[in-house]
Write a structure and sequence with these properties.
single chain; about 70 residues; mainly beta; five-stranded mixed beta barrel; 1 helix
């Protein structure tokens, strides 16, 4: 059996996320929506991890903004 593909995204997500519902996230200037969530693995201040029927997601927060702040310093 093949494993699910993992999607790593730096962006923002509308919380709360719930099993059985879609997740909406912001990445590269666009809002996107996933398929329905079948399992939530972890939600904390740095990232969320969950999976849909076909994919596993890890959405990390604020990566782009942190890079901009480092360049400005």
């Amino acid at each position: 059996m093949k494993g699910k593909k993992i999607v790593l995204i730096y962006g923002s997500i509308l919380l709360p996320i719930e099993e059985g519902k879609t997740a909406k996230y912001y990445n590269n200037g666009q809002w996107k929506e996933t398929d329905r969530i079948v399992k939530i693995h972890e939600v904390n201040s740095e990232f969320v991890k969950f999976e849909t029927e076909k994919l596993k997601y890890c959405i990390r927060f604020q990566k782009a903004e942190a890079g901009i702040l480092n360049l400005a310093a």
